[in-house]
Design a protein that fits this description.
The chain is mainly α and about 90 residues long. It starts with about 25 loop residues before the first helix and ends in a 20-residue tail after the last helix. The longest helix has 18 residues. The protein contains 3 helices and no strands.
């Protein structure tokens, strides 16, 4: 299948990157980001990242010392029932 060459005049104006700076955001991108999508009901409790961080901060040390994360809890257990072992 042959590629069809397009003339620059055929491209929409917003796709003209001739004035762009290569690698402008490369450093920021390489630092990474961690995006977590919360369920709507939970998201209402946390209007911004600061409140999420404040809520999660008490769990940071126990998980850091155990070498495990939230995703590595034993199956069938969650943080919600950790104190309710009958």
């Amino acid at each position: 299948m042959k590629k069809v060459k397009k003339n620059a005049a055929d491209m929409a104006k917003e796709y003209d990157f001739r004035g762009g700076i290569r690698g402008k955001y490369a450093k920021r991108y390489s630092q990474g980001t961690n995006i977590i999508v919360l369920e709507p009901g939970i998201a209402k409790m946390f209007p911004d990242s600061k409140t999420v961080n404040n809520a999660c901060a008490p769990w940071q040390k126990p998980f850091a010392t155990s070498g495990k994360g939230f995703d590595q809890l034993p199956k069938g257990r969650s943080l919600h029932n950790e104190g309710n072992r009958d």
